[in-house]
Amino acid sequence: MTSNTQTVLGLETSCDETAAAVVRRGADGHVEVLSSVVGSQIAAHAPYGGVVPEIAARAHVESIDGIALQALKDSGLGFGDLTGVAATAGPGLVGGVMVGLAFGKAVALARDLPLVAVNHLEGHAVSAKLAADLPYPFLLLLVSGGHCQLLSVEGVGACRRLGSTIDDAAGEAFDKIAKTLGLPYPGGPALEALAEGGDAARFPLPRMLLGRKDCDFSFSGLKTAAARIAEGLTTEAERRDLAAAVQTAIAGQLAERSDRAMAAYAVEHEGRDLRFVVAGGVAANRAVRAMLEQTAAARGFTFTAPPLAYCTDNAAMIALAGAERLALGI
Ligand code: KG4
Ligand code: ZN
Fold this sequence. Notes:
Elements: E1 6-12, E2 17-25, E3 31-40, H1 42-45, H2 53-75, E4 84-90, H3 94-111, E5 115-119, H4 120-126, E6 138-143, E7 148-155, E8 158-164, H5 170-180, H6 187-195, H7 220-231, H8 236-268, E9 275-279, H9 286-298, E10 302-304, H10 308-311, H11 316-327
Parallel strand pairs: 1-4, 4-5, 6-9, 9-10
Antiparallel strand pairs: 1-2, 2-3, 6-7, 7-8
Bound molecules: 5'-O-[(R)-(carboxyoxy)(hydroxy)phosphoryl]adenosine and zinc ion.
5'-O-[(R)-(carboxyoxy)(hydroxy)phosphoryl]adenosine binds near residues 15 and 313.
């Protein structure tokens, strides 16, 4: 099947955001986000310091229809203008995934549209394409609350893993360390705010997997070390400095492994344009972005990161992943 224009309703309910979006992908690959609505459940989970699956599932049921209708309204289109529906089918919290997927199936069935079941990670992988012209192939660092991986992305659905975390994801490390610093959920953005102006050199933190030459990550030792230091802190300045040290350590590890992956990727893609993309919630962190951007430039890679709104969970990335598959007749 040849490429064609796709107008897709995307649905994302795999964690604590109920999201819907309408994305148009032209036959030439040009992408237009016609609407993107994200309903956050942060307030519902905040008292518990993390996402409670039962609360998340119920909140998705309550809001999915309203949010999907809002996305259509914002796009100026009706159900009759759609060429397909795409919903996150995993990985994620099963109660939430089922809500979005079943809702998507109902729409597809009622409107006689194809339904694409999208892998959440594939959504993050294409998120940088929502605002920038980014052809395949590219090297991807996917850093979110649940994942931390380096992937060689060759085309639609064609990913090869070059490295991944052997324990926690980077976002998880941000969240857990933020908690030991007494910061509210979600911890990543709160820790970034606290770290501002801090002295990252005041508290030395361990560098993980030093002896290894692969592209794997590890954050659990860092977490333990930071928690031990946090216990003894008394002043706000100390907390700020520890937050800065943690942020620098995480960004440094991400950059170091990415550098290693870039070296290997460059050999495999000799003579081709070298592109490095960072995606996932942690890509919203400015220190992380800055360090990765530097690393990419030093290795001769162009650097692309999604706008902040497309870093964290959203449905536009799910709609685009679906549109790319539909365009290929998958
Ligand atoms: O991609 P995402 O929205 O959800 C998952 O699929 O996991 O990522 C959420 C993660 C959380 O761990 C959150 O703390 C982290 O991304 N995050 C950040 C920042 N914004 C979000 N971490 C560090 N700095 C930030 N500014
Ligand atoms: Zn995500």
